[in-house]
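Work Package 3 (structural annotation) set out to generate three-dimensional models for the target panel prioritized at the project kickoff. During this period the team completed the workflow that converts sequence records into discrete structure tokens, so that structures can be stored uniformly alongside our sequence database. As a representative example, we reproduce one entry of 464 residues exactly as it appears in the project archive.
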Amino acid sequence: MEKQGSKNNGNSQIKDVLPPGDKSTPPYAQVDEFSKEYVSHWRLLIVIVMSIFLAEVAAMILIYELPSLPYIYVTFIDAGVMTALIFPILYFLSFQPLIRHLDSRRRAETELRKAHDEMELRIQDRTEELRIANSELEEEITERRQAEAALKVSEEKYRKLVQYAPAAIYEMNLEGTKFLSVNDVMCDILKYSREELLQTKPSDLLDEESRSLFKERISRKVAGERMDESVIYRVRRKDGTWIYTDINVGEIDSVDEKSSRVVVIGHDVTERKRLEQAIKDSEERYRNIVRLAPAAIYEIDFYARKLLSINDTGCQWLGYSREELLALDPMSLTDEEGRLRFEERIRQKLAGEMIDQTWEIKIYTRDGREITLALNVGEFAYKDGAPVSVLVVAHNITERKHMEEEIRRAARDLQAANEELTRFNKSMVGRELRMIELKKEVNELCECLSQSPRYSPGFDSDEL
């Protein structure tokens, strides 16, 4: 086989060396023509031999007609006749074509050597081209090997990425009857071994609603519909507990002519769902607290000068419905002093200045009553990096202000009464002191008149 291949390669190389489109007969083709001519000469030689045979027959007939001669004479006559008849024929029909054949052969050999030399040159050129082609082929083979090695490394990285990615990655047939492959994360999430999962029907792991939804999405995917969004399904673990998984269906690949497979990526979002539910419950509790809080809680856009939200308590205090308040300018509910104070405090808070957290403002209700609110301005809400609104908590201190006014009025009355009592006490104490002095004077006069004292010596202390 190798020798035959080498021979074929040699012939192909010779054919490649010949210039394309050369219609001239190559030297080795001329040699073949000489060989054909040589064969034809052999045919002529056979004819000549037959002619000699016939000439011999004619000579024998001639000798037979002559009178009896000695054997030696007969032989000479026969030879002479044969020589006279056959030699010209041999020369013209045999030797002369042979000489021409030899001359043509020499010319053919000369041409063949010349063609051989030209072929050698062409073979050298062709060899150089083949060497360059072989070098390029070796480079291509080297690059291909490097690409195959890089592909193998990439496939190994992909396998490790799939195997250890923080997501459940698996392949399944479009019918959803079996898993084709699963990674370790999926086994850890569902608490199954790989062998158990490969023997489990994928749709059996979903609840009824999730199973119907998954089949619908697979059908839409097969129909060529693009679905980038992921869907959350309920999946049953081996221990019977249910978890939530965020599943994204990938592209559909053909395994063979009869079946296809789809790659599915899933994330365990059970904790996220729990937190979302907790946030939802917390927001509901917050809404209830805000709605039922014994304080007016509202959010105000201080640039557009409108309320963004307000709770039920604020609506009840002001006597307006929520829709009416959201359509009003909140600055129209206070006086000029209140507007200026509110704008000044907003300016100070935007500038980062330290201000009192609570301050009072007068508000007019729908029926014209004046109420006093203690406002506590919270943190700003931002949009595109700029503050746009602020949350305010207001307490109705109207009754407290009335009580404080009553207390201040009572305090003023009490103070006046105390002052009057003090003046009365001072007048009473002065009178008693004057009485004591008069009693002392009476005792002294009695003593001068040699009479006994009218008042006892300790009367002053008793009086006091």
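The chain has twelve helices and ten strands.
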